[in-house]
What we know:
Layout: H1 2-15, H2 17-34, H3 43-80, H4 85-104, H5 110-114, H6 119-125, H7 138-148, H8 154-166, H9 169-188, H10 192-202, H11 204-229
Amino acid sequence: MIEFSLLGAFLVGLMGAAHCFGMCGGLVGLFSNSIPTAPGRNFLSHQLGFLLSYNLGRITSYAFAGALVGGSSAMLGQLFAIDNYLILLRVLAGVMMILTGLYIAKIWFLIAKIEGLGKYVWRYISPLTQRFSRIQHKREALMAGMIWGWLPCGLVYSTLTWSVAAGNALEGALIMLCFGLGTLPALLSAGFAAKALANLVQKKAVRLASGGLLILFGIQTLYIAIMQLS
Length: 230
């Protein structure tokens, strides 16, 4: 199952590009504008260094969250000796894969509504962003990116359910790491490249193929879980 989850998580990040642009495009622009100038240095490499630091921080937060929920589910299962709890979590993960596939295919948008649940947590985290409004060093960009990683996002929450079902911290972290890597092309691209990527993932055939593949992953996950229950 972990192979399906890793590939599926990467695909969600990659094909969620349009969602990424909508959720984080303004934030990326803000971060880009806050990058200090460096006379005498190559502009593109200087910008890229800071943007990579932002995104490394963001993906680190994703991996930490995946490890946290994956490890917690394993610990709770051992602590309370719940029979078949991991199988039931895999059923949940399969359902969330299917819902995410429907979202990417633009058939049903329930996943987007889940983002509202994270606004309560973001209310307490967002004030920290003010401390990084003037980025001067890459380590500050890294810290800002780690805060950015907790921005409410339905796709992140959906993928986190797969980390819960993984049943251990390492696999939970790997799933979220693959998701984060999948988002990199969208959040590192700029100008024409960003528009080209957005246009590509919006093509009906691409959306349906990617969403359909995720739905198949979800059905496969449900099938394995149901067979284990029987």
